[in-house]
Structures are given as structure tokens and as C-alpha cells.
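Quick one, T. Sequence first:
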Amino acid sequence: MQHRAPSRVVSAAPSRRLLLAGLGGLLATPVAARAIPSAAEQVWLAYEARLRARVADAGGGAFQAASERELLSLTNAARSAVGAPVLTWNGELARVARSHAADLAARGYVEHLSPEGFDPSHRVGLLARRMIGSASENIAYRRAEQVADAGELMGIWRRSSSHWSNLLRPRYAQAGFGVVVRGQKTYAVGLYARPDGALGAPLPFRLAQEGDLVSAVREASPAFDGFALADPLNPSAWARVDGEDGGPLPPGIYQLRPRRRVSRVRYEVLWGPIFARV
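C-alpha cells:
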């Protein structure tokens, strides 16, 4: 199975303020945290906690570190054979890949969408706390008496034209893999990306101090031309746009959406971490 996250290029607003002006509203007096998050927020909080737990316990199975690294080597050999640039290992992508492979093993399903309805872009947003960008995902599954090795997992992807084209896509520059064995079942997840940048520091998932967001955005590399905060389930629903002084950020679940200008009148909306304002 393969899944690819979209990117967006939109028209620039007629007038734009500097990034730090947009952060001005986030420096206001913090709003008091609520004792009980909403039902929708609780689903996000529970899923983020589940992913972190799966990185620790491998979903009741065992991570196969050697196979994970071998998948990168085999991927690069296949890419070199067709003239595509080789990929470097990305630790954040590997953490996300491991979390999903372990969740597949723990709950016994083989899908890009979790039972709660979360997709690869949500997992990257929840666990890759510095990366700016989206990723494409491949999944492989094999049940056999003997543990499937990296070559067998690559063979599963090679036999699928969509998986193979995803793995060979020239635009990608980095990758991370997660492989979990539980009993006779082997689960593998590959994530491929060309990150658009990185925050200056990992953004806390539970954002208690809005200054943490300010610091991470201010020190991002490369610098952004602007940013917005959006609903991660409805990216077109902006909760805050740079230049707006909306006062303290209310409690809720947000996704950082940096913006980079691509021409005088157009800019690209990028993908950043998802966080909970508590």
C-alpha cells in the first residue's frame, strides 16, 4: 500500500506582514487551560499517546533494526539503477514509520488509515516535531513461519507498480523505515520525503507556553515568509494567520502551516507539526 500527501500553492494576499508581527498575538497573556479537553481533542491526545507507546513497545513484537537499515540500502540500489538520487536516513521519519508498523502489529490491521481515521500526514505531524514537509508511505505485510527479511519486503513493493513508483520517485531525498515482527507476522512501513525545512527546536505536542511556538518558528531553517495555524482535519480552515492579532490562542488541536513565497504573487503552503494547545 502507498499513500502520498498533497501540497498546495495558492495566491498571495494583497498585503503581508512580517512573520514576527504574526507572532505578536501569540505573545499575549496565556488563556487558562480547561480541565477536560473536548471529545475531538481527546481522540488526538489518545492517538498521539498510542504512537509514542508503540515506539517504546513495538506493539508487542520486536523491531528489526538491521532490516530497517537494509531496506534503505536496497532502496538506494534500486534508485541508483534508474538514475534517481539516493536517499539519506531521516530519524524522525523512521520514528513515525516504527510507530505505525508497531500499531499495525498491536491491532492486527494493514492500512494507511488508523481505525480512528488518521493518515500518514497526521502521524508525521504528531511525531516529527521539527520537520517541515509531508511524506509518502509504503506498507508491506507478510505472514510466514520464518521472519521476512528486507529482500522479501522489497519484493512485495517491487511487485506493485504504485509502491515501486513511490519508492523510486526522483524528488525524494530522505527516508525512514520501521519493521516489526510479531509471531509469524512481519509488518514494514517506509516513509519517503523531501523536507522543506526544520524548526529551530522540537515543538512540544502539548503546548503550554506559546513562547515555545514563537521560538521554534523564529529559528526555523530556512526562514518562512509567513505561517498559519489550521485545523489538521480541515487544512483550509485557518485558526490564525500571520499578521492577525487574535489574542491568546484558545485550547484546541492545531497544525502549523508555514508559507514560502514562490513568486511575486504566489506562495506555497507547507506542512508542519500538529500540536495541542492545553
